[in-house]
Amino acid sequence: MERRDFVALASAGLIAAPLGATALQAGKVHTIGYLTLATFPVSLIFRQALQGLGWIEGKNVTILYRTAEFRSERLPAIVAELVDLKVDVIVAVSAEAALAAKRGTPTIPIVAVDTADAVAIGLVASLARPGGNVTGLSYLGTELASKEMELFKEAIPNLTRVAILTNPANPTHLPRQEAAASTAQRLGVRPETFTARSPDDLEKAFGEMARLRAGGVLVITDPMFNAATDRLVHLASKRRLPAMYGFRSHVAAGGLMSYGVDLADLFRRAPIYVDKILKGAKPDDLPVEQPTKFELVVNLKTAKALGLTVPPPLLLRADEVIQ
């Protein structure tokens, strides 16, 4: 953890005391429900950070991993199962998972991870005072969508038509899509929205983008899109579509560029909330944290393959340039 991150967390009261500093019930094994939409049920980064705080699986904590496998309709039943199992805390990865958990239990503490616009979607009352049993980490996805569009246009000055890829099942996508479209229009770019509810929908969506001669595609961040990184990058390359993403992982896989939060860092910070809650803290007393660092990443190899010349001023502002 960097020094500025430590100071920020300490000032918010989120740095956990050593395990022995708080009286824990001797011999008690706490249970965490880990709820996600993705097919991969666990984040290694989350487990490592949790272990760093003294919580060892099989020793003093049990983690019940549950995934809806990209089927949102499964979430309520999974939440009901975790409630019946009397877990001590639910870690909900994504807005859909967090909202499902909130609807399913008003009492079990919920730590939301990778959630955009937590206040706007009604997950918490405010960032400073969540006002219920939900806390965790959230970022301003709507504002990010606008910034991503601005940077995309700067990278491709002659862009006149842009595709915006969304997942209608994600409750944060409509306002983010609208923000990106509004920014595109302000910049003289015609926006077209395309949807995909599952990885199987992506091929059709990219085919439609090519048919309408989109000059590029902005991919709104989503758990399903993140899990389908290689497919997204392949389809964009196949259709020779420059693409703007929200996470560095897409650019590392061959995408053109990204601007957004450090996803791995969100999973490193989430265990801090879990640790505090397992030691007796109430979610309403733990402010929702927002990231303070945003990264611009550009893949020059991909730009060259697409016949694009990224303006030097943009490259100078990039946090990372992949050659």
What is the total tally of β strands? 12
DSSP helical segment count: 13
Oligomer class:
single chain
CATH architecture assignment of the largest domain: 3-Layer(aba) Sandwich
Give the overall average pLDDT. 90
What count of structural domains?
Answer: 2
Largest sheet: 7 strands, mixed
Radius of gyration: 20 Å
Range of helix content = 25-40%
Strand content: 15-25%
Strand order of the largest sheet: 7-6-8-9-10-11-12
CATH topology description of the largest domain: Rossmann fold
CATH class descriptor of the largest domain: Alpha Beta
Q: Structural class of the secondary structure composition?
A: alpha/beta
The CATH homologous superfamily of the largest domain: Response regulator
User: How do the helices and strands follow one another from N- to C-terminus?
Assistant: HEHEHEHEEHEHEHEHHEHEHEHHE
**Sequence stretches where pLDDT stays below 50 over 5 or more residues:** 1-24
| General shape | elongated
Determine the N-to-C terminus distance. Answer: 27 Å
Structure characteristics:
single chain; 323 residues; alpha/beta; Rossmann fold; seven-stranded mixed beta sheet; five-stranded parallel beta sheet; 39% helix; elongated
Short description:
This protein has 323 residues and is α/β, with parallel strands linked by helices. The chain has helices at residues 3-11, 44-52, 75-84, 95-104, 141-155, 173-186, 202-211, 223-227, 229-238, 248-252, 263-278, 300-305, 312-317; strands at residues 30-36, 61-67, 89-93, 110-116, 134-139, 161-166, 190-195, 217-219, 243-245, 257-261, 294-299, 320-322.
